[in-house]
Amino acid sequence: MKVSVIMLTYNRKSLISRAIESILMQTFCDFEFIIVDNGSSDCSGTIADGYAQKDGRIRVIHRERGNIGSGRNTGLEVAIGEYIMFIDDDDWCEPDFLEFLYNLAVNSGADISICGAYDKVYDEKLIMSPEVALIELLCRKRYNVQFPTKLIKCTLFDSVRFSEHAKYDDIELMPKIIANANLVAYHGLPKYTFYRHPGNNSAWTTNHELLTPETLDEYLRVYRERTVWLTERFPDSSALWRYFEWSFMISMVEKIKRLNIEHCTTQLAVMTRELSINKSEFQGSDYVLEFEKEWLERYVCVR
Known about the structure:
- This protein is of the alpha/beta class.
- 45% of the residues lie in helices and 18% in strands.
């Protein structure tokens, strides 16, 4: 088996069929499709069962409600493919999605291949070392931490799993997956569509008024741990890893201030203090952007 496609579903009765059918229409046929019903209270699991009865490549696993990471881990435990692909139950992909990514990985000899999505389209190809791929990841221009759009060699999951407690497990695990790859291949042609809607787990990233203290606390914790881990793994880029953490902070400070998000005042104080302590290094960074300097002066370095 070449590819194991894993999809977690929870109460997506109006969307799940589109996601399933986009996989069944693939031009690349050597795959298994593992659908994990994460304790749905609607008929999402029943819909998945119906497709499984018609197509032997589909296996449906019903489990009690858990977080996204625990559901994905359930799929990983039974996957037998040489490569792993995750998709989300509210998204869809192009018919040549798997073929494109599989050929990109095999032809480049990379452990990870990445395509574009319709919100990030770049018709260019890169073959990168793990360190360079991580820098591109944290820049968030060509691709981001979300697992869909990435075909991953199954061996990269041998010693790691998704967090069974965090809500945003992608930001914690993806850097570690990339760090352990031999090469990462990227070709930014759009083969996947992320469907943004109010019920989406990452809806707050496009509607910042949905930001909660719990979400921000989790991001700040993971970003701090990520900076420490990456600095130990790739010490030559330690200044860059610190910059990325502060860049996230200043972006959140700006949004909290501009949108007057009153319920995040505790987190605002923590970030403002951190940025104030490190303002000289942040302002003097080779990577800092002009608007970040402006925000730092406006919201942190108030005289």
